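Run log, item B.
One chain of 239 residues. Sequence copied directly from the ordering sheet:
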Amino acid sequence: MKKRRRLKLTLLIALIIIIGAGSYILYELKFKTYDVADDEVTEIVADPYTVELPDGSKITIDEKGNVVEEKSSFSKTQTADNTTTNGTTNSSTNEGQSSVGQTQTSGNTITSGSTTSNNSTTKPTVGSIKEKYGPAFVGLEAQADSKINALVGRAKSEYMDKQANGESINFGYFYNKYMAAAKGLEANTDKVFDGVLGAVEKDLTKNGFDKSYAQSFKKEYEASKKARKDSILSKALGK
């Protein structure tokens, strides 16, 4: 009987210690507030993404965290310039040809018009539409990786500085500080991704395709996010 009582008492004490330790860890990681102000970390998170779309416009995030699409007038200007140039050239050519014979000039004009019409009616495919947005998604991923690497580098640098100065290492402080920063980066990345994905969907529907064809980008993005998180954990554990 005494042995059983002692065993029960030992188990009870162990349970209290485990619960107490768990509560302390939960408090340290989730509820305790820390002074985590850091200009360098703030700069990394606040540094805006800029992704260029196929039409020359750019998607970025403003100071309030809203996605902004900056339209480019380059394409329109270039088209206008080309039209003017082509018009002038064709006019000069036609004038030169009129001295040889009006029939020949008329023939050239019809042939040229027919070629232009055929080119302009070429309908893009789902594959060609998605392909032209590939560089935008690759660019976004590259920027996200760069920011995460900068954040991890900052965390390691701060840890080593504290260690070198003989300061105590509070893991709750590091967890709260850099987890919040990582979540901020992820939120910004998600916003820009959704902006680019919206552009793909709009392009698909404009050409008569279902916007669901763009969902493959979403799946790839979620997979890359998981890989990025695994990479961060691996770096944090020193693997």
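Observations after the first pass:
- The chain has three domains: 1-32, 35-74+125-236, 76-120.
- Helices lie at 2-31, 39-46, 74-98, 102-120, 126-164, 171-206, 215-236.
Flagged for discussion on Thursday.
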